[in-house]
Amino acid sequence: MDAGRFVEVADRVWHARFPQWDVGVGLVPGRDGAVLVDTRASGVQGGAVVAAVRAQFPGVRVRHVVNTHVHFDHTFGNIAFAGATIHAHDRVAATLDGEARRIRAAIAADCSDCPEYGYTVADLDEVAQTRLRPPDCTFGSSATIDLGDRVVTLLHTGRGHTDGDIAVQVPDADVVFLGDLVEQSAHPSLGPDCWPLEWPDTLGSQLNWVGPDTVVVPGHGRPVDEQFVCRQQGELATVAAVLRERRLAGMPLADAAREPDHRLPYPLADLADAVACVWAQLEPS
Question: How far apart are CA 6 and CA 15, in angstroms?
Fold first, then answer.
């Protein structure tokens, strides 16, 4: 990984990966400015993205920022983009304050280095101290950003990783940024605000715009292709099927969270939040 350097993944579509949480940032320049996809986890980290864009693309102005979903590692850097319009789903605006409370409480409970995810205590301090900048423009199902010589489309097809995940499509380059609906450097993160039963269908709807030559950029990791997304959708469908089966059978939550099943594609320990979400979202039979 060439950390912090933008790499062209398709015609005039660029992607950079950063070590903290291995989060990715996209850049789509056009005649009338550029769209930046996601802003990292703090004002300091967002400022580093601003510096990277200036260094690699002199004269390019980031006029639009898109948040693929609400989580701190994709939104807290918004504060560094003065003068840009922030775009996101309606639910990002509604839940950003709650996300800030959640992550700040988590930092207060355990503020320590985590080499596995590439962050340090100093990074966490920066996250906790960052002032939020909410979206300026929100939408429910779709929106477009006109860059003069190209159009970027924003599309929400349902709940999954959160209730406000969107795809950022660049049709002229056949590129789709899917945020954390797809991850490459680890399996998908099924956290306390996920929708496991709906995620496979949401991802399936996004696949309507993905073909064999489409470059799919995940929220974490390197760009992938249609086959990768289909495979991950199948894994998420298996998780949904097993958890639905357990919930409808009336299995107690504690038992469902610890009972192994050879069909599950991810470690059971990583599915504790998903189990709790399904138990809250689905009535037993």
Answer: 5
Q: Which residues contact 191 (CB under 8 A, 6 or more apart)?
A: 161, 273
How high is the mean pLDDT of the chain? Answer: 96
For residue range 264-280, list pLDDT tens digits in order: 999 999 999 999 999 99
pLDDT in tens, 221-248: 999 999 999 999 999 999 999 999 999 9
What global pTM score does this model have?
0.96
Residue 1 lies in a domain: no
Burial class (CB in 10 A: 0-12, 13-18, 19+), 262: exposed
Residues with Cβ within 8 Å of residue 137, at least 6 apart in sequence: 85, 86, 87, 88, 143
177: which 2 tokens?
Answer: 């940024």
Structural domain range at position 154: 7-281
Measure the CA–CA gap between 242 and 228, rounded to whole angstroms.
22
Amino acid at 233: Q
Residue 2 falls within a domain, yes or no? Answer: no
Residues 6+ apart with CB under 8 A from 138: 87, 88, 89, 90, 92, 93
Domains in the chain, number: 1
Contact 14/26 with Cβ under 8 angstroms? yes
pLDDT score for 3: 78
- pLDDT > 90? residue 142: yes
Distance CA 26, CA 167 (A): 12
Distant-in-sequence, close-in-space partners of 205: CB < 8 Å, separation ≥ 6 = 157, 158
In a domain? residue 188: yes
The answer to whether the beta carbons of residues 194 and 172 sit under 8 Å apart is no
**Residue 117 pLDDT grade (very low, low, confident, very high; cuts 50, 70, 90):** confident
CATH code for the domain in which residue 89 is found: 3.60.15.10
